[in-house]
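Hey, I'm writing a tutorial for new members on how sequence and structure tokens pair up, and I'd like a real worked example in the thread rather than a made-up one. If someone can provide the structure for the chain below, I'll link this post from the tutorial.
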Amino acid sequence: MTSILRPALVLFVLLSALTGLLYPLAVTGAAQALFPAQAQGSLVLRDGKAVGSSLIGQNFSDPKHFWGRPSATAPMPYNAAASGGSNQGPLNPALAEAVKGRIEALRAVDPGNAQPVPVDLVTASASGLDPHISPAGARYQAARVARARGLPADHVEQLIADHTEAPLWGLVGEPRVNVLALNLALDQAR
């Protein structure tokens, strides 16, 4: 019996050490060496203090800031520990009601804006944590933000253009604007 049990235990301890200790340490070390910012969570720093991550959306509700995509995470919006969408399909009455409420909130804060509301401003992403909005979503909010901050509209439009990221390698994805980066640039512009 020991001739069978001993090799099995040795193999178990060896594989546990290899896959549970050595491999994670090697991967973490390689990530820290090759991609230090990403390995630390892609943190965005202001005055040496972390103010967010470039990979996780934040809840902006002040009219002086651009608003990101709605979050469907629970129990609070933009909860990185509970990433996930609402799982509501396009025919779900709850989704239709949520979208209607979001449109009303956007219209209430900017009643003179008669443009069609871009879909990314009223629907949550699959993760519920998307830090980006479309350039159209940013432009939709530009006049409100400029008015609330007392900035020229063309200055705000230029900030949007400066913070619009191109598709990956020019092929993958759509142009997008990181809401946190744009709002931080606005805060510096004052």
